[in-house]
Every structure is written in C-alpha cells, then in structure tokens.
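Email to the structure team, subject: Arf-GAP with coiled-coil, ANK repeat and PH domain-containing protein model.

Hi all, the expression group asked for a predicted structure before they design truncation constructs. Nothing fancy, just the tokens so they can compare against earlier work. One-line instruction: predict Arf-GAP with coiled-coil, ANK repeat and PH domain-containing protein, return tokens.
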Amino acid sequence: MKIMVDFEECLKDSPRFRATIEEVEGDVCELESKLDKLVKLCIGMIDAGKAYNAANKQFVNGIRELAQQSTKDEVIESSLTKFAESLQEMINYHTILFDQAQRSIKTQLQLFVKDDIRKFKDAKKHFDKVSEEKEAALIKNAQAPRNKQHEVEEATNILTATRKCFRHIVLDYVLQINVLQSKRRSEILKSMLSFMYAHLTFFHQGYDLFSELQPLMKHLGGQLDQLVVDAAKEKRDMEQKHSTIQQKDFSNDDTKLEYNVDADNGIAMEGYLFKRASNAFKTWNRRWFSIQNNQLVYQKKFKDNPTVVVEDLRLCTVKHCEDIERRFCFEVVSPTKSCMMQADSEKLRQAWIKAVQNSIATAFRDKGEDAEKLDRKSSTSTGSLDSGGETKERSLKGETALQRVLVIPGNSCCCDCGQPDPRWASINLGITLCIQCSGIHRSLGVHFSKVRSLTLDTWEPELLKLMCELGNKVINQIYEARREELGARKPNPGDPRHEVEAYIKAKYVDRRFVQRPTDDQLRSKVVSLSKQEKRLSSSSDHMPRAPPPTPKLRPGSNSSGQTVKSADSGIQNSSDESREMPPQAPSASNNSLGEAGRDASHGAQAPVLGGADTPPMAMPSTLPPPSPCKDVSFYEPKEYSPGLQLFWASCARSLPDMAEALAHGGEVNWVNTDDEKRTPLIMAVHGGSLVTCEFLLQNGSSVNQQDAQGRGPLHHATMLGHTGQVCLFLKRGANQNAADIDEKTPLSIAVDAANADIVTLLRLAKMNEEMREAEGPYSQSGDETYQDIFQDFSHMASNDPEKLNRYQAYDHQKP
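Reply from the structure team: attached below.
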C-alpha cells in the first residue's frame, strides 16, 4: 500500500500527521525486513544453482566419457555426444539465468535498501531530534514567568528558532517519505520484472534448443522398438547357444582338442600345458601353448608376445617321458635344446604328441597337395559341433509355442487391431498381439497387461496351456460385448498409433465395452458354476483310482527343458500334442474344462532325488482319492458379486468365467467371509487345476493369503496332494514356513501324509533358499539341480499329469 504524507499537514504537526508518520515508519521497517529476507533467499538460490550446475557439468562429462568409450558404436557415440552438447548448452543458459538473478534481485534490491531506506532512516533521526527540541522549547516557553521579561524573551527566541528548524527538517522528512514510497514501487517491480524476463529468455532458449534436438530424439525413439527386438533376439540366441553347449557332455574335455592344419587363424592346435623351467629349481608353470606356422610357442597372458619353444618343427622330434615322477609328460627335442611338458591326461598327451608329429610331417610335404588331404581329414573333426541341436531347441521352445497358440480360434490375428501373424502375447489376458499393440499394452502397466514374445521368450508349460485355454475369441466376447451397441470402431492394421492406443485403453483400462450383468444374471451364473463344481466333485468321487507308479529315478531333460522318455523313467516326451487324457479325468461340456482335466496334478510317488545315500520315501497306496472342492459347500450369499463369480469359477476350472468376473470388476484376492475367508486361489487349488492357479497368479493373486484356519494356497495344495500346484507356488515365492492355527507347516503336513514328492520339493526349496541367503544378497536363482528338478515337475504337471496321479488326502492321514 502506498502511503503519501501531505506537506501542509506536516507543518501543523497534528495528531493525524503523527499517526501517519508512525504508520509510514512501521511500513518501511517491515519493507526493509522483507527485502533483506528476499535478498538472502536469492543468494541461497544462486549458490544452490551454482552447485547444481557444477554437479550437472560432472554428469555431462560422464556422458561424454561414455560416448568416447562407445566409439565402436556410431549410433551411441553420435547420440550421446549430441545430448551432452545440448545439456552443456542448458548449463550455460542456467549460468546466465543465475547471473541475471544476482544483478536484478540481489544487487538492485540491496542498492535500494542501502541508499533510499538509509536516507529515510537518517531523515527520521533528524526529525526525531528536532521534534524533541521543539517539545522542550514549547515546555520552556510555557513555563517562563510573566514577571521575568528576560526569561520570556529567551524562551520566545528559542521557540521561534526551533520551530523554524522543525519546519525545515519536517519538510525534508516528508519529502524523503514520499520519494521512498514512490520509488519502492518502481524499484521492486523493475527488479522482479527483470528476473522474470531472464526466466522467459531461459525457457525460450531451452525450447529452441530441444526443438532442434527433437527430430533426432524422434528418430531414435522410432529405432528403439527394433533395437529392443534385436537385443531380445540376440539374448535368445545366446541363451540357446549357452543351453546347447551346456548340455553337451564335457566329462571328456580332453577329447575336444584336435589337430587342424587349415585353421582360419593359422593355429593348428592350442591348449594349456605345464612346462618345466630350464633353471636349477626345475619348477613347473602352466602356460598356453599353440602350434602355428610350423612353430611351437607359448604365452603367459594374451597380450604377451609368444615365446618360441621350437622355431622349426622339421628339425625336432617328440617322445614320451616315463622316467620322471610326474604323469602324462612328453618332451620336444630340437638340435639346440629340449622342452619338457605335461598334459592334464593321457588322451591330451597323445593328442599333443600326434599334433607335433603331424606338424613335422606337414612341413615336409608339398603344401598344395597336402592342403586338400588335410582339409578332407579335418572336415569331420572340425564339424564336431553340430548346430542342429540349437535349431531343434529353437523349434521346441519358440516355434512350438507360436504354433500352439496361433491355432486357438481368433489367435491368428491381433486381438485389438486384426493384424495377421502376431508374434506377441498378453499372458494375463491370454491373447495374441502385433508389435504395435504389444507396445501399447506394455505402456498400460503390468497390472493391466503382461506382454511376452511368442518367439523370443521361454514359455513355461503351465503358461502355454493358459494361453491355449483362452484366446482372442473368448476375450473379445467379454471385452467387446457392447462395442457394436455403442458404435465404437475397432482399429484396423495401419491405423494411427494414437487411435489404437485410445481404443485399447477404453477396452482394457476403462472396460467401456464390457457388458455389465444384472443381479439375476450374476446370481444365475454363480449358481450354475456351483452346480458345475458339484458335478465335477461327484464324477471325481466315483472315478476308479489309478494304481500308484513304482518309484523311479528323476527323469532327464532335453535341451529345451522338455521331459523325455528314459530307460528307467517311462515318461513320454511332453511335446507330443496327441497324448491321451488320463482315465480318471472328469468330463465336462464346457470348453474351458478341456485342459483342466489334464492338469489336475495330484501328489505322486516321488522320484528318488538326492545322492546315493538318500533312501526313497515310502508311499502308502491305500488312500482314497480326494474329490475336487469336496469340503466346499454352496451357501446362499448375502449378495452376489463378480468376486463371488470368480470364487466359484476358480473351483469349477472355468477360465472364461474367471476372465469375465475380472472384467466385471471382481477382486482377484476376494475373500469369501461365508466360507472360512477362502480366496479364489484357494478354490482353484481345490478345483485341482494348475492352469486356473497360473491364471490367478498372473493377474496378481497373492500366493500367501491365508484363510480363517491360517492356511494359504500352499497348505491346501499340500493337504490335497497336488504336487504340480505345490511346485508352482514354490516357484512363485510361497512362504513354506507359514503355520496354520494348528501350528502345521506345509512340510509337516506333507511328512504326516508321507507324500514324498511334496516333501522333496519343499525341502529342496528350503535348501535353495538357505543357499541363496548364505551366498549373499546378490546371489542368482540358486542351485542348478533345484532348477532342473522343479522344471521336470512343472513339465510333468502340465504335460504328463498321469505321471503324478497318486492321490494323497491329508485328512485321511490325520489321527
């Protein structure tokens, strides 16, 4: 607020003038305080900005160093260099902004405080002093006695002089006040406006800079999808090559060394040997030897220049050495010296001796004639690494997954835009997608869609079966039920990305096209599913029980992780699509139960897992098979909800009804308070279906949520003897140490039921967890044996459930 003082009023020195002066003085004091605070804050901001710029410069230098390190990759080097230049330019703009802030805020406002407000304070001191003098003169004049003329004259003269001085000082003070009040507005606004213009310039410069950079950024963004695909393909190829090589028999590594005179690098043979030193101590050192250019040389490190042992093999001979204490020794003798060497095995010694002899013979032969002979000879040896295994593995893993999924109705085209020949999938929805729609699904977040490649990723058997249970046709009947009614157009291949993205968000995030059921429809659906569950239970109760299999060794695995038939296991290759359903599987008319009957992976006689001193666990064969959901009864609920539909659909093994319940807003971890607080995942366990459990877990179901008895899904799967489900839950991080209200853990339940399979899985998982904890927080997934065994059980549970058909019921074991 601008306060001006009237000059006429100040001469009267009225109370109104004094009140105005007091108000002005208070306002100026507060103004000085606020300006001092603003200047200090500005100084702090500038200091922080300078520190930010210094840190930012170090970051940009780091980008430059990374670009220099990536000189072999032109795209990364040029892009990072351009980004570093742009960021450096932004640092320069920041520096200019902070300099302008120092000039406009700090310097200008400090000058205003030091000059104008200080002048005001000085004028105030003079005014206060002369005011006191005037007050004293008035008092003295009033007190002068009438009869003392000289005192009266003196008091009158002093009062006159004081009043004259007061008028002069007070006019100057009022002038200073009015000038300050007028100037404060312009100084503050001028300072802040200059600062804001500096910001405007800064952001304009930044916008112009990044506008120039935008085409490059868009170009790189366009390349990223392909780069991601290429990187995933390279990773996949490396994993396949790693798997192929890892599964080769390396028990006889000493047979891998072969002499090849026509090797591309000119090295006919190379490998590690121990060499005896020629000094007095005769020490033995391990060195990397090679035969190249008719010379025998060795190296200690790769960067070291090779040390020549024999300059010309034509002038030397090689012989066995049996007269020294060390084994597998041989000696290369030349006219000037001899070299004693030691191989790691007898086969390696023979290979090296033969290689030296062949080199000697080759050196004397005609080069052209012998080249053809050696080429024919080495063709068989150098071709020992068969690449057919890798191709076969790729076929078993990637192509089979693609072929199996694409034959499902509607899966041959993208679920959302209709693009033919899709190569991606959403595993929690069970649909196939083109590359553009897969990118949009990935941007939705994993709580809506989990994207995986049908050709580049490894597919677990239970996940592959889940994809085969659903498909584009089933899901579109749910998520596009009202699309035509609402007049929404489905995207076509080649439509702009933003249109496809809007449609996908409306379909899966907003669920705009889902047909919401009425209360009567929902009630009818729930009652139908509960009756369907009872029919399954009834048919299961009357099924003949299969005889238990005899204990066998753990089945082997081929290169793709598929279970293969071995001489002592009798397990068929799981990639066979035409295998028979087990005779005890219940029949159902519903499509969704086609695979469910085959994945009811109940407890089985355990393969003997462990060392030679680990005795096989005995398995009782007199227990009756449990019925699916046999201890679950249908109660008339307080209200019907999508969660209740999911609850009964999980028990009835109906994946389409489960997907429909989730689309209608059913909570995946819904709790049935009328049924001991059981969840859909627990009901899926009682339903006996591995695929329904996998579907719920992919859609965010908690693997450790307990019921009113304190039992989680792992407890229930153990009690029912569902080995495949136990394996699945352990892979998904189920807590096997959790105890129910009876203080029973899954392990104690399995031990009481004498279920060797489940006991073995639980103990292996516990050992693996302890190993990871012992190795530290950065350990990998664990022991390879653990991984192999769990992989075998997963394949049997999904592809050969008849191998796990020994039923175990915990309640029959309880005393």
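Residues 295 and 312 are 6 Å apart (CA to CA). The beta strands are 267-276, 284-292, 295-299, 307-310, 317-321, 329-333, 338-342, 424-426, 431-433, 451-453. Ping us if the truncation boundaries need rechecking.
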